[in-house]
């Protein structure tokens, strides 16, 4: 109990899906690189997945990792359609364990008591309950509900949140994986509601600027001989599942478009079909010279390759979006109609639509979309460069976290709202 800890101890808690864990890990890397003590708390299932990665130990040498049970059996599929199970289990099993862990750190941890908790925004209710039990102010959450075909002029719920903030006393702020020039109008609505809004995105690019990243994958070698902007990169993320019929529609659409493609097909991605039975032999033969299919790919490195066409803002690569669930529909709408950096397939999945939309992106509207994409890519890179908004906001975040130790303010909660699920 007599130990003196000179640095704040930050506990980070992401929602247990890889699309949420990755940006939170980015934040953890940035804070740890600045000399802060960071404990990254994952569910036991995801902690095991992370530690199996070859680059795990070399990529996060100064982070402290802990795991916690989410109460689900080991054979639970943990797919998006079953996230309700995760939420229920978090409330019944994980919440009391989380509270106990915070108390244990206050008494016994070599890292010292937890100074603040950075929690994924989607974990709002979970963090709110724990915060109230500990006698600290609950975090806030923001909801956007608008007709996607209408221009957003107001943000419903802001008045409620403003009244709630008047009754609250301790929420420190929110971290947003975005940058000022991308979403300025919305950020103007959010800023008055919180003491601090830290826009520090794109996080993956900021990590490379501040720390560096030299991961290289052999799957990129298949793109090295391809012409500039000629390869379509296809990925459905870490949990989405499709039927064999949908897979074939995409495959035929890609074949008929004439494009070369790099496709990430997870072993568990196709419902009820073994990998060897997914694609007819004649279709595989027809694309042998212009396809490369892998179980996993380092997405950031792939997107930075000059031959790849689809995804993403930071890399300056236009997108074709096929929204399935969660925030996909909203994200897709912004990509297509708001920022005009790609095209939205909406809920269609047929080979002719896929063929047409790929040709449209790569030929007919190529210059228009590339021009817009290049503009936002430059703004993104400016934001993470020395003197840029995200660069400076990260510096402010680190300084504020250090001040918590000086002021002896303990167990603050900052809500993080990871931007754009990949």
TrEMBL record:
CDD domains documented for this protein: GT1_Gtf-like
Keyword Transferase on entry: yes
Pfam families named in the record: UDPGT (PF00201)
Entry keyword annotation includes Transferase: yes
Gene3D superfamilies in the record: Glycogen Phosphorylase B
One Gene Ontology molecular-function label: quercetin 7-O-glucosyltransferase activity
Keywords: Transferase
Protein family membership: Belongs to the UDP-glycosyltransferase family.
Protein name in the entry: Uncharacterized protein
């Amino acid at each position: 109990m007599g130990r003196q800890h000179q640095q704040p101890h930050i506990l980070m808690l992401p929602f247990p899906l890889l699309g949420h864990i990755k940006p939170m890990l980015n934040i953890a890397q940035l804070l740890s690189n600045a000399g802060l003590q960071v404990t990254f708390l994952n569910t036991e299932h995801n902690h095991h997945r992370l530690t199996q990665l070859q680059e795990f130990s070399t990529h996060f040498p100064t982070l402290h990792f802990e795991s916690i049970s989410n109460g689900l059996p080991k054979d639970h599929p943990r797919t998006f359609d079953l996230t309700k199970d995760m939420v229920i289990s978090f409330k019944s099993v994980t919440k009391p364990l989380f509270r106990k862990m915070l108390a244990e750190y206050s008494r016994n941890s070599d890292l010292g008591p937890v100074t603040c908790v950075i929690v994924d925004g989607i974990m709002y209710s979970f963090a709110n309950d724990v915060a109230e039990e500990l006698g600290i102010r609950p975090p806030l959450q923001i909801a956007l509900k608008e007709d996607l075909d209408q221009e957003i002029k107001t943000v419903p719920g802001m008045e409620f949140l403003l009244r709630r903030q008047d009754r609250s006393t301790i929420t420190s702020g929110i971290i947003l994986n975005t940058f000022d020039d991308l979403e300025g109008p919305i950020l103007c609505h959010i800023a008055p509601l919180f003491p601090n809004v830290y826009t520090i995105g794109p996080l993956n690019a900021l990590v490379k600027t501040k720390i560096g990243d030299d991961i290289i994958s052999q799957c990129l070698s298949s793109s090295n001989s391809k012409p500039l902007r000629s390869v379509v990169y296809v990925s459905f993320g870490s949990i989405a599942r499709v039927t064999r019929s949908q897979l074939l529609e995409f495959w035929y659409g890609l074949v008929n478009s004439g494009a070369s493609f790099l496709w990430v097909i997870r072993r568990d991605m196709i419902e009820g079909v073994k990998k060897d039975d997914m694609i007819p032999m004649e279709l595989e033969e027809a694309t042998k010279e212009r396809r490369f299919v892998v179980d996993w790919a380092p997405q950031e490195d792939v997107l930075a390759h000059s031959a790849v066409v689809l995804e993403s803002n930071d890399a300056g690569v236009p997108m074709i979006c096929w929204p399935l669930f969660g925030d996909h529909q909203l994200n897709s709408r912004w990509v297509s109609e708001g920022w005009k950096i790609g095209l939205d397939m909406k809920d269609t999945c047929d080979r002719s639509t896929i063929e047409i939309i790929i040709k449209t992106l790569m030929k007919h509207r190529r210059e228009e979309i590339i021009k817009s994409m290049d503009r936002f890519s430059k703004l993104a890179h400016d934001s993470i460069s020395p003197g840029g908004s995200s660069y400076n906001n990260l510096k402010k975040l680190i300084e504020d976290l250090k001040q918590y130790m000086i002021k002896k303010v303990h167990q603050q909660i900052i809500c993080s709202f990871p931007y754009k699920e990949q």
